[in-house]
């Protein structure tokens, strides 16, 4: 069993049940609670988190609404086997894995603008060649907002398929564009906390843990086609990287 996830000083009491739900969700997605495993009793969880039984019940209700757990009459609450393996976001160095992650996802558009907005990137990563079309979106699973993303897409590419880019995930469409041939994607991942606006969009307490991911896609000449700044719910993120051990290391 994990140690207590939260401390009294760190908690926003107005959203206590959401923080408890976030901790339990993270344990489920990381495999600490396995599929079909029974969760500890409500009273035990209340003691573990040092909160009321009502707070834990509300937290479990959130997970039940998300399809992560199910209550079995007279038996308890169990992790469902059909959702836990698909909710976690795995980041690695493969562009294909990113496309697989975005497959079937949906987005809610918050802001779109044709005003000349310039993304901020280091010149070593790519050369800006705007103007760029700006979009701000929330990415969703079936039931939960899991990411807020600011997108700068080169305007001439956007205009080639305006309807598609307005409606669908941007990177999978961009992957089909001839401009991307021979290009590359630079990805930076850091971990921080949610500001009030991000917290509201992602249904999180202020200062909850989030993953902050910046992706820059360039063409074969290093011209920037796409810049995406994405803030992910921290309880949805798993950073997994395979590192090869060079045989020369042991010599």
Automatic annotation (TrEMBL):
SUPFAM superfamilies (alphabetical): Chorismate lyase-like, Winged helix' DNA-binding domain
Biological source species: Roseovarius pelagicus
UniProt entry tagged with the keyword DNA-binding: yes
Protein's name according to its UniProt entry: GntR family transcriptional regulator
The keyword Zinc appears for this protein: no
CDD domains on file: WHTH_GntR (cd07377)
Family matches, as Pfam families: GntR, UTRA
Alphabetized UniProt keyword annotations: DNA-binding, Transcription, Transcription regulation
HTH gntR-type domain boundaries: 14-82
Gene3D superfamilies registered for this protein in UniProt: Chorismate lyase-like (3.40.1410.10), Winged helix-like DNA-binding domain superfamily/Winged helix DNA-binding domain (1.10.10.10)
UniProt xrefs under InterPro entries: Bact_HTH_transcr_reg, Chorismate_lyase_/UTRA_dom_sf, Tscrpt_reg_HTH_GntR, UTRA, WH-like_DNA-bd_sf, WH_DNA-bd_sf
PROSITE patterns recorded: HTH_GNTR (PS50949)
């Amino acid at each position: 069993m994990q140690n207590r996830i939260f401390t009294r000083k760190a908690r926003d009491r107005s959203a206590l049940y959401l923080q408890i739900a976030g901790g339990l969700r993270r344990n489920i997605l990381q495999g600490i609670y396995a599929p079909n495993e029974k969760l500890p009793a409500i009273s035990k969880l209340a003691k573990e988190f040092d909160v009321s039984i009502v707070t834990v019940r509300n937290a479990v209700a959130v997970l039940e609404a998300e399809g992560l757990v199910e209550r079995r009459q007279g038996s308890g609450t169990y992790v469902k086997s059909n959702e836990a393996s698909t909710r976690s976001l795995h980041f690695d160095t493969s562009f294909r894995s990113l496309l697989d992650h975005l497959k079937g996802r949906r987005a809610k558009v918050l802001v779109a603008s044709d005003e000349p907005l310039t993304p901020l990137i280091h010149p070593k990563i790519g050369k800006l060649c705007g103007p760029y079309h700006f979009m701000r979106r929330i990415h969703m699973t079936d039931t939960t907002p899991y990411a807020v993303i600011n997108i700068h897409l080169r305007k001439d590419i956007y205009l080639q398929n305006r309807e598609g880019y307005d409606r669908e995930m941007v990177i999978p469409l961009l992957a089909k564009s001839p401009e991307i041939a021979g290009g590359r994607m630079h990805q930076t991942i850091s971990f921080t906390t949610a500001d009030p606006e991000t917290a509201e969009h992602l249904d999180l307490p202020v200062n909850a843990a989030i993953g902050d991911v910046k992706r820059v896609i360039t063409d074969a000449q290093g011209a920037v086609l796409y810049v995406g700044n994405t803030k992910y719910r921290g309880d949805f993120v798993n950073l997994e990287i395979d590192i090869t051990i060079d045989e020369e290391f042991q010599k």
